[in-house]
Amino acid sequence: MFEQLKALIEDENRVITAGIDEKYYSDHLGHIKVKPAAVVIVASTDEVSKVLDFANLHHIPVVPRGAGTGLTGGTVPTEDSIVIDLTKLNRIQHLDKETMTLTVQAGVLLEEVQAFAESNGLFYPPDPGEKASTIGGNISTNAGGMRAVKYGVTRDYVRSIEVVLANGSIVELGSKNIKDSTGLDLKDLLIGSEGTLGIITEAKLRLIPKPQIARSVLVPFQTLEEGIDTVLDIKASGVDVAAIEFVQKEAISLSEQYLKIEFPTHKGNAYLIFTFDGDTASHVRDNYEKVRELCYQHNALDFLVLEDEESFEITWQIRGAIVKAVESVSVQEPIDIVVPINKSAEFVKYTKAISNRHQVAIQSFGHAGDGNVHLCIIKGTLKEEEWQEKLQLVLEDLYQKAAELGGLPSGEHGIGLTKLKYYLDYANEVQITLMRNLKKAFDVNQILNPNKAY
């Protein structure tokens, strides 16, 4: 049956049924691996439509895939499925400076969008840690990142999307218009749906003027609690801050070893990293001086304005390399729980207690400005059976605590396969029923990215 796919695609070599590359079995972590029945590397929206029409007719599961940088098993296929590889849909189509929108295909990388926008004096603010992810993947998980505290998340920068529905229909959801009270917002239903309602093939992204000046500041504290208390006061003060990250000393040490570079300070046990941006040096300076005062009120050990390029680059390289640094020394399970911002320190403190209780190393870091706590649960020298047992106990404790604090299982990575159990354990039954009914409305035969999200 899968041989019939070749007649639908201009180049039959882009339909693979034998010798499928193992990268299609999983996502970035590779913890769950399943060989699909076929892979189709599409080169147009029309080809996506043809494949979905075929799959829907024959009730064949379809799993959309971009760069494969996901961390929750969201692109893991089923054995009888077709994987649609969207990476050849990689053209930046059109910049409309009058409406401040950029039209791109789904396979364009985030770093390419950011570079293109900035080369035209514009700015695309969403900034998740993985810059080699695709825009389609970012939209499908509503990716956030470090600048969310000031600028918001991917959803806030999507004007419209071109989507292929499960039956092969092509539809544009949203528009270039800034305001819209015309019917249900179907576009926003697709954003964050992880490929379960339709396959995104193109997007019109909202851009803004590029800030002319940016400065980063590094602030060490003796304890993380002091740092998080500072963040609460900063947010309450209304100071204009583009990014607020927290990281602890142990994670910094791992990154230093991995990158073979040295962090600008080794004072204290926890650090806040800020970015301030704006159109004038005085505006930026005024804001970080207000933050300086608040930091010292909360016992900051120093306040380092990273004026030189080298210190700036080193600081953000070390912050950005934590997950890879952990991966370089051990198998790990990275998760991205989000809790109310005033509960961040309590939750991180709890992770230390859980680490001690189960004798499993856990590194924590994340977005202090929005309560998104990233955790690396580390296997270390544990044997596989013991690791799996302890990992499940740790996860159960962490997700239960997050729920008690009013948090949620995912801040920006999505649910995929690895979080599905914990999501359903604490989800509202009415909401789950509504989402399942929506899934049926979009995808009658339930072929799109099965076993994910709900």
Automatic annotation (TrEMBL):
Q: Matching InterPro entries, A to Z?
A: FAD-bd_oxidored_4_C, FAD-bd_PCMH, FAD-bd_PCMH-like_sf, FAD-bd_PCMH_sub2, FAD-linked_Oxase-like_C, FAD-linked_OxidoTrans_Type4, Oxid_FAD_bind_N, Vanillyl_alc_oxidase_C-sub2
Q: Does the keyword Repeat apply?
A: no
Q: What is its EC number?
A: 1.1.2.4
Q: According to its UniProt record, what is one Pfam family this protein matches?
A: FAD-oxidase_C
What one GO molecular function would you report for this record? D-lactate dehydrogenase (cytochrome) activity
* Keyword annotations from UniProtKB, A to Z: FAD, Flavoprotein, Oxidoreductase
Name its co-factor(s). Answer: FAD
Catalytic EC class: oxidoreductase
**The FAD-binding PCMH-type domain covers which part of the protein?**
32-210
Q: What is this protein called?
A: D-lactate dehydrogenase (Cytochrome)
Origin organism is: Cellulosilyticum lentocellum (strain ATCC 49066 / DSM 5427 / NCIMB 11756 / RHM5) (Clostridium lentocellum)
